[in-house]
Amino acid sequence: MSSDLVELTEESHDIFIDMPYADDRNFTGKPVYNKARVLLHKDAEIKLQKAIEQAKNIGLKFIIYDAYRPPKAQFIFWEHSPNPDFLANPHKRGSPHSRGVAVDVGLADIVTGQPLEMGTPFDSFLPESWHANYNVSIEAQKNRLILAGIMLNAGFDNYSHEWWHYQFFNTYEYPLLEDDRLGVIE
């Protein structure tokens, strides 16, 4: 286990956790993780905590879809769908997720728990998932901008092809990490 990774829970960080990779609600159609656990590099956790506080101040709460991703999970994803527009090639530099400095997030109303409209589901491999795609509702465009503003202000960079993906600007300065707490299914 990597000592650089810290676990975030719904209780410890006042977030919602909805990890489709721990069940079959993902693009592979099967569970990839044995457990729905949110792990982040300790540096990323500090920045995400800042984002969580900003969201809370405007009546919103984060939904975490994915965070740290073991390198072997990235290989499973790549073997299933080798699409460099949506997945980092694990044969090259690997994924920012596998370094613990990327997080896939959405926002929900803090009172009702209802997710905000973002125009596409999480992990949709369609052009409508791109930040600059305006073929989604005005409400979804506004919500994406709110999410981007919060995350950018907290110190994260966005990935232009996925409204949900945020990572460090200097992501590749962090090493790939091996941690088995998610229990990747092979």
From TrEMBL:
<feature type="site" description="Transition state stabilizer">
    <location>
        <position position="69"/>
    </location>
</feature>
<feature type="binding site">
    <location>
        <position position="165"/>
    </location>
    <ligand>
        <name>Zn(2+)</name>
    </ligand>
</feature>
<comment type="similarity">
    <text>Belongs to the peptidase M15D family.</text>
</comment>
<feature type="active site" description="Proton donor/acceptor">
    <location>
        <position position="162"/>
    </location>
</feature>
<keyword id="KW-0645">Protease</keyword>
<feature type="binding site">
    <location>
        <position position="97"/>
    </location>
    <ligand>
        <name>Zn(2+)</name>
    </ligand>
</feature>
<dbReference type="InterPro" id="IPR000755">
    <property type="entry name" value="A_A_dipeptidase"/>
</dbReference>
<dbReference type="Pfam" id="PF01427">
    <property type="entry name" value="Peptidase_M15"/>
</dbReference>
<keyword id="KW-0224">Dipeptidase</keyword>
<comment type="function">
    <text>Catalyzes hydrolysis of the D-alanyl-D-alanine dipeptide.</text>
</comment>
<keyword id="KW-0961">Cell wall biogenesis/degradation</keyword>
<feature type="binding site">
    <location>
        <position position="104"/>
    </location>
    <ligand>
        <name>Zn(2+)</name>
    </ligand>
</feature>
<keyword id="KW-0862">Zinc</keyword>
<dbReference type="InterPro" id="IPR009045">
    <property type="entry name" value="Zn_M74/Hedgehog-like"/>
</dbReference>
<protein>
    <recommendedName>
        <fullName>D-alanyl-D-alanine dipeptidase</fullName>
        <ecNumber>3.4.13.22</ecNumber>
    </recommendedName>
</protein>
<keyword id="KW-0479">Metal-binding</keyword>
<keyword id="KW-0482">Metalloprotease</keyword>
<keyword id="KW-0378">Hydrolase</keyword>
